[in-house]
Design a protein that fits this description.
Oligomer: homodimer
Distance between the termini of chain A: 19 Å
Number of strands of chain A: 10
CATH architecture of the largest domain in chain A: 3-Layer(aba) Sandwich
Strand content of chain A: 15-25%
Largest interface: A-B, 69 and 69 residues
Strand order of the largest sheet of chain A: 2-1-3-6-5-4
Order of helices and strands of chain A: HEHHEHEHHHEEEHEHEEHE
CATH class of the largest domain in chain A: Alpha Beta
Largest sheet of chain A: 6 strands, mixed
Shape of chain A: elongated
C-alpha cells in the first residue's frame, strides 16, 4: 500500500468498519464468511473497509467497540447476536451504546407475529425479543427469516447467518453513499516474490495513485503469486495491468491469467 | 455467554488477541483462514482468544494496534506482512511499536543465504529484507520457506500464508502457557432457536460455569442448529451434553449428531 495515496482516499471515499460478534468465530468453531462478502461489496461501491474486529458476545465489549468505531468511520456494520437466544445481546448493546431505550417496535412486532402465526409457530417471549429495536432506529428488512436488522444513525446491525446477512445487506446497500469506484487489475504468475519485489516497489512509486500488492496462493501443482493493482483511476489501472504483465515477462515468468 | 463466568475465566486463563494484517482481507480478495486455525489451537491449549482485528497494510495503524493490544492480553499474534515486497512492513512496525532498531539478524541472514544459494536464487536486497528482525526479538522457525517469524516480548509475528503460518504456530505453541483445558460438547438438532431459547437460557443459569450457545447452520436439505456448551469443568460438560440432548427430545426435536 502507498501511504500517501491512502491519505488522499480518506478524504474522498466513505469509510467503514465491520464488527463480527460471536464467541464461535473466536473459538474457531465457525469459519467467518461475512467479512469477505461485506468487504468486496463495499469496495464495489467505493466504500473503503478500514478495519474489522471480531469480538465475543460480551455486552460491555460490544457496546464499547460500537462507540469507539462509530465516531471514526462513515459507517459501522455489525453481524451476529440478533437472534432469540440468551447470547443474542447486540440490540441491547446498541441501545446501551447510544444511551436509548430498547422498546418493542410496532412494525417489527407485526411482521414477526404474522410470520410466526402463518407458520403455526408459538410467538413466545424469546422469539418476540427480536421485535425489540433501539429507540430511533430504522428497520432493515429480512426477507429470509423476517426478524429485522436495523440502522441506528451510522451503525447497521445485521444477522450473523451469512444467507440472512447477505439479504439484509442487499437492502442496506442502496442507502449507502457511493465513493469513487475502486477497480482492480491482477496478473497471476509463477515468479517468487523475491524476483520482482524491487521492480514492483519501483512500479508502485511510478503508479502512486494505485495500491500495488502481491499475494502468494497455492494451486494444485505448485505456488503462484497474484500481482494486484487497486485504485479509482481507470487509465492508471490499465497502465498497471500492462506494466505488471511486462514485468513478469521481462523476468522470465509465465502469466497464468489476468483476473481483470 | 455468561458474563460472570467470563470474569472468572479472565483470572485464570491466559488471554490473546490476533491481528490479521492485509488489505487483501479487507477488500474481500482473500478469504482469511488464519483466525479459525489460531482460535481453535489456542482454545485447545486453554488460552482464550478475546479479539481479532483485521487491519490494512498501513504502518501507523499496525504499530498503534500492536501497542494497544500487547498491554491488554497475555499474548498478541500477528499474521501477514513479513515477505519481501514493499507492502510487507510488519517487522518495521513492530520495531517502531517497541521503540527498537531493526538490524539484520545474523542467524536469520545465515539461514536465508544458505536457503537461497542452495536453490540457485539470487539473495537480492528485497529477499534479504526478511533477515531484518527487531532488536531483542527471538526467531520463530519457518520450516516451509525459511524466512523466519519472530517473538518480541509477548508479540508473535507470523507469515500470512496459511501453510507457513501453521508451521510457525507449531513451533510457537510449546512455548505458550497452558490454561485450564477448554472443552466443548455439542448437539445438532432440527429445532428452530425460538423453540428452545427459554430452556437454553434456564440451562445456562443452572450451568453457570459453562458458556452455552446455539448456532444455526445450513445443511443440504434444510437448516439445523448446533447447541454448544464450552468450559473447563469436565463433569459439568458431561451434564450439559446430557441436558442438551434431553432438552431437544423433550421439545420433540431430532438429534442429528453429537460433535463431542
Amino acid at each position: 500500500m502507498n501511504p500517501s495515496k491512502d491519505a488522499e482516499t480518506a478524504q474522498i471515499a466513505p469509510t467503514a468498519a465491520l464488527i463480527l460478534i460471536g464467541n464461535e468465530i473466536l473459538s474457531g468453531r465457525t469459519q467467518d464468511k461475512n467479512l469477505a462478502f461485506i468487504g468486496s461489496r463495499l469496495a464495489a461501491r467505493g466504500i473503503v473497509l478500514r478495519e474489522a474486529r471480531v469480538i465475543a458476545d460480551s455486552p460491555d465489549v460490544i457496546s464499547a467497540t460500537i462507540n469507539t468505531l462509530r465516531t471514526q468511520y462513515t459507517y459501522v456494520f455489525t453481524t451476529g447476536g440478533i437472534g432469540p437466544t440468551h447470547d443474542d445481546v447486540t440490540a441491547d448493546c446498541v441501545a446501551q451504546a447510544f444511551g436509548v431505550e430498547l422498546p418493542v417496535h410496532a412494525e417489527a412486532e407485526r411482521r414477526l407475529l404474522e410470520y410466526f402465526r402463518g407458520r403455526g409457530v408459538e410467538p413466545n417471549a424469546d422469539r418476540m425479543r427480536m421485535a425489540r429495536i433501539p429507540q430511533g432506529a430504522e428497520l432493515v428488512d429480512n426477507p429470509v427469516s423476517i426478524a429485522p436488522g436495523f440502522r441506528m444513525e451510522n451503525v447497521f446491525v445485521m444477522a450473523g447467518v451469512p444467507r440472512i446477512m447477505q439479504a439484509m445487506f442487499d437492502n442496506i446497500e442502496p442507502t449507502l453513499a457511493v465513493g469513487p469506484s475502486i477497480g482492480s487489475v491482477s496478473v497471476v504468475c509463477d515468479l517468487p516474490e523475491g524476483d520482482f519485489a524491487g521492480d514492483l516497489r519501483a512500479l508502485q512509486e511510478t503508479l502512486s495513485e494505485l495500491d500495488l500488492g502481491s499475494y502468494p496462493i497455492s494451486v494444485e501443482n505448485g505456488a503462484r503469486v497474484v500481482l494486484v493493482a487497486r485504485g479509482t483511476d481507470v487509465v492508471k489501472l490499465t497502465q498497471a495491468s500492462d506494466q505488471l504483465q511486462a514485468l513478469v515477462r521481462r523476468l522470465g515468468g509465465t502469466i497464468y491469467g489476468d483476473e481483470r
